[in-house]
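Justification of computing resources. Each target in the renewal requires a structure prediction run like the one illustrated here; the chain below, 344 residues long, is used simply to show the kind of job we budget for.
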Amino acid sequence: MGLAVSEDNIPFMHEVYEGNKHDSKIFPELLDAITERLTNLNIETDDMILVFDKGNNSTANIEDVTSKMNIVASAKQNQAEELLEISLDNYKYLYTNSKGNKMYGYRTKHEFFGKEFTTIILYSAASHKKQMKSYEKRKAKMLEKLADLQRRLGSNRGKERDASSVEREVSEIIYKDFRSVFGYKIGAVPPGKKKPSLEVWIEEGVEKKRYAGFGKTVLFTDLTYWHSKKIAKTYNQKYLVEDDFKLLNDLLLVPIGPVNHRKDFNIRAHIFLCVVGMIFYRYLAWKCKHLRLSILQLVDELGGIRLALVRKKTDNNVMVVVEEMNVKQARLFSLLDLGEFMVS
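Resulting C-alpha cells:
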C-alpha cells in the first residue's frame, strides 16, 4: 500500500497495488496519481515538496519528481562514501530532536542520478552508538559460530564433509548485509582427514567504511535556499507516515491484516475501511493535541472511562453514571463532550 500524508499528518491519498511489484516501480504511478488528485483540487504542485526515502530512488523517478515539484530525499551511503569520511569537526549543530538527541549536519553539493543537489550528511551520536552496538553484537555472534565451525572441521570426529557443504553452512552463518565484511577461504581436504579447512577474516577496508557511516543519513534536495536545519527536519517528518503504518498494523486499532479476501475489489474495499478508521483516529488525536497524548495513549485512557447503571433502593429508576476518572480521562470526557452520549 502507498500512503500520502500532509505535513500535518492528514492522509489525503492511498493506493493499493500488487505485492509482487517493487516500490520503485510503482512510485511513478503513485506520483502521477498524487499530481492528478491535487490538480483536480486546483492545488498547484510547483511549490510542493515531496519527502521520500531511498527505497524509491532511481534516475527516472528523480527526474519525474523534480519536473513536477521539489524533493527532500535520502541516498544510499555507498552513493556518497567520500562524504562519510569527512571529520565530524566539520559538522555544525542543527537542532535537538524530541528524544533529546543532538543532530549535526555537514552541507555540500553532490551529484546523484546524474544531477547536482544540495546535500546534507546528517549525524546523530545516539544513532551512531545504537548502530555500533547492534553491529558489534551481530558480528560477535557470527564470529562465535564460525569459530565453532572451524573447531568442528579441525576435528577428525564425525562424518566426512566436502567443500560445498561447508560453503552452505558458512553462507547460513553470515548475514546477508555482512557478506562484504567477512572474507573466508575453504581449503581442500588434507590426506588422512575427513574435512576441509576454513580460514576466516574481516575485510578491514570494508568495515572501516561501514564504521564511517554509523549515525549518518545522506540527504539531498533541490531546495538550495533552505537552511540545513529545515531540510533535516522536513526529511525526518516522514516518521508521520511510518506512524500511520504502525497504526494499520496494530491488532487493537485498525489492523489491515489478516486480509481474509481473495478478490482485488474486496481487498481494496477492506483496506479503504481501515484507512478511514485511521483517519478517525487521526482526527481524534488532532482534536486532543494540546493534551500531548499519543493515539495509543488516547485509546487507552478512553477505554478506561466506564459507565455504570445505578438504582436506588427507594425507587425503581435507573441512572447512568460515570465511574471515577483520573485527570486525563476527565479532561478527555469534557473535551470530547462525551456526556452528550449518555442515555439516562
